[in-house]
Amino acid sequence: MHIPRLLINFKAYMESSGDRAVEISKSAERIWREMGVLIGVSPNIVDLRLISSSVEIPVFAQHVDPIPAGAYTGHVPPILVKEAGARGSLLNHSEKQIPLRHIAESINMMRDLNLISIVCSPTPSESAAVAALLPDAIAVEPPELIGSGIPVSKAKPEVILNSLRSVKAINSAIPLLCGAGISSGDDVKAALELGSYGVLVASAVTKSPDPQRKIRELAEPIASFTRA
Amino acid sequence: MHIPRLLINFKAYMESSGDRAVEISKSAERIWREMGVLIGVSPNIVDLRLISSSVEIPVFAQHVDPIPAGAYTGHVPPILVKEAGARGSLLNHSEKQIPLRHIAESINMMRDLNLISIVCSPTPSESAAVAALLPDAIAVEPPELIGSGIPVSKAKPEVILNSLRSVKAINSAIPLLCGAGISSGDDVKAALELGSYGVLVASAVTKSPDPQRKIRELAEPIASFTRA
Amino acid sequence: MHIPRLLINFKAYMESSGDRAVEISKSAERIWREMGVLIGVSPNIVDLRLISSSVEIPVFAQHVDPIPAGAYTGHVPPILVKEAGARGSLLNHSEKQIPLRHIAESINMMRDLNLISIVCSPTPSESAAVAALLPDAIAVEPPELIGSGIPVSKAKPEVILNSLRSVKAINSAIPLLCGAGISSGDDVKAALELGSYGVLVASAVTKSPDPQRKIRELAEPIASFTRA
Amino acid sequence: MHIPRLLINFKAYMESSGDRAVEISKSAERIWREMGVLIGVSPNIVDLRLISSSVEIPVFAQHVDPIPAGAYTGHVPPILVKEAGARGSLLNHSEKQIPLRHIAESINMMRDLNLISIVCSPTPSESAAVAALLPDAIAVEPPELIGSGIPVSKAKPEVILNSLRSVKAINSAIPLLCGAGISSGDDVKAALELGSYGVLVASAVTKSPDPQRKIRELAEPIASFTRA
To answer: What does UniProt give as GO cellular component (chains A, B, C, D) (predicted)?
Structure first.
């Protein structure tokens, strides 16, 4: 199972929907081929199938509901997300918080379907809690820095260090991504040096005048770091 | 604005997702061409764009969130649904109940985008409440009959009659669909004779061994009735 | 059934909890005896029984869940609220929005228990929607003015006028209270002159250095107006 | 800080509200004095203050919201629960599931107020997740056995054993209660022998024709066990 080192969340932005979602995803694919850095994209659910059929890099839903296929108007079961070509899903993003039991059930359902679960968490202690549920990866993001342009890796390095420590104490095999305010290659480098497996970004790429250049900038420190 | 007389809700069924969603939608389109009965389909959100680009009949989301495009991971704003080709959305289905204010805000946002809002309601008095919010149509469905195979139009005709009366008292221009347990042409006929503008169906079509034949059966009384 | 002309919402303020809740409620009771203006209080649920047993004026819960008595940990059925001495409940406050169906079900359950339902609404069209559900009273409060100190009755008189018009069109017997930013006797007078049956207030009283004097100030225009 | 060995959840039952809530609580207090077994009661929030002022045994809310005192109509901040005399709160009961972040924030707010947090969980892995958030105690209850009369301690001993193991791995100081279907002294004995610190019960006591006798029956094995 391949967890992306750079995961781009398209949220519900116009700038990263429809044709633009395809374009950004193809840019990410190009950088992956160019540099060998595994990049994932998480488009809005309306674009999920379109993106899955347009690129070979892994595509993630932004949320799934812990339900089987069935009579659930307005809900999205993991199996339909898989059928639409996704390789996994984000869960519990600070913009889409869900009950503890839904996190646990969704992880289990996704595991049975061979879908990658990446669970978001705002703090070290919640990262530890999530780790106990055995997701495939955890993405720690202090909500107050999301979209702020203030990089977690520089402004709150202790959030990353403490999350790493507390997650490792529970299960040393779960990779930790970090996010919130990451907008330059330098921010990514700082995150990796602290011990992050990778980073989660959104507006830095989706609102960039030149997303491909921005993705390359963010991927470069990962390429250097993982080569080293 | 064209409100379908027959609206097929695909829910989150496997039987009406992916390729099968396309197939059922194409069947509906064929019946529309054959009989002139306007049929709408409401696929799962993962299939929305696929279906919109496959057929000319109107396609409806099963739910939208009352938000603009933006930083809303795991949410679906009306504008993205429109961009994906939908002509409107269901709202407040009994399987996806939302706060009163969300109904009002979603209707307003959809009106501004020229998207058709069809708001579900379980009872006559809630149909009246919804009518006051001026949606494009209302679909009354007693939850206890949904998926039961017991047709609302025969088992609870008073729900339809009282909904019609109470909606008309508020705004006589809002068409009323009815649903729950509708599974034969006869059930549709009964609904129309009571005064329904149309019907909302799900498993009767999606789980049929021959969806096209079933759609034809359900559309026939509408064709007769609207010709009469 | 007696709907208060002045309803004081204690929210979850420290300033209006425990002993202070009793004191404010007794002040309200005194003004009621002094002026004959019916005043209601809506304490936090932890204080509901304490207040109900301390004063004779009507006490309202701030919210109830649409459930019977039973295995509902962390929920509050209307019947327990009644048993604790409440005379009714607020519902759907902008700080506690609930699904349309919960509003309808709660109103029905409260009616069966002889409890007064006062349903909050942010706009004229939602006031009309609520009116169709036949609550005992409606309280319209534009959320952006709640706690602002800018009185709805002066800053947005059209919200009151349009709510009155749209509620009357549905059921002319439902009294309309208005709230948000009401903090002086003058604001109350303006509300009554526009046609409000009464007003809903919170911080103006609960955070006042002299709640009794403030209640008297707010009740005076009601006394004059209803005498007139 | 004293965590009860026997915690009685009154839910929203008529049989354990108002005067009956006082009576059951006084019975629990008597057994505590008689046997020295610490018993806690968790009345419905409408009865919280009444019970707190009637008995000396610890009283727990059934839920709190992760908010400070303030403009939160229809919500209950921990500080008001404390002011009403509670010694702590249950959280995340299977009948009142809350987002992971709310659990974390509520625990932290309660710790700052010296309130005891007892967090419910349905499975061993969710118990571990909760343990990482450092509550004062965890209560594991398989939801399918709640109210069933089939005791978790006999029907699903592995849930208790695995929860103990996984909680200990994270923090060996957090006591584990277990619940669901516990209705006899024998069920309690089985729970203690498996390693439970105590038990959580509801209908076995609240719906008993003789609650005091039932509480004594449930407390006896605890008295024997803790003496041993």
So the answer is: cytosol
